[in-house]
Amino acid sequence: MQGSMFPFGSTLPSEAFVRLPDRSFHFQPVPGRLSWSRNYAAKGIKFICACSSLLFQVHGNVYPTGYYNVTMYIGQPARPYFLDLDTGSDLTWLQCDAPCVRCVEAPHPLYRPSNDLVPCEDPICASLHAPGHHNCEDPAQCDYELEYADGGSSLGVLVKDAFAFNYTNGQRLNPRLALGCGYNQVPGASYHPLDGILGLGKGKSSIVSQLHSQKLIRNVVGHCLSGGGGGFLFFGDDLYDSSRVVWTSMSSDYTKYYSPGVAELFFGGETTGLKNLPVVFDSGSSYTYLNRVTYQTLTSIMKKELSAKSLKEAPEDETLPLCWKGRRPFKNVHDVKKCFRTLALSFTDGKTRTLFELTPEAYLIISNKGNVCLGILNGAEVGLQDLNVIGGIGDFV
Question: Whole domain around residue 215: which residue ranges?
Answer without folding.
Answer: 54-238
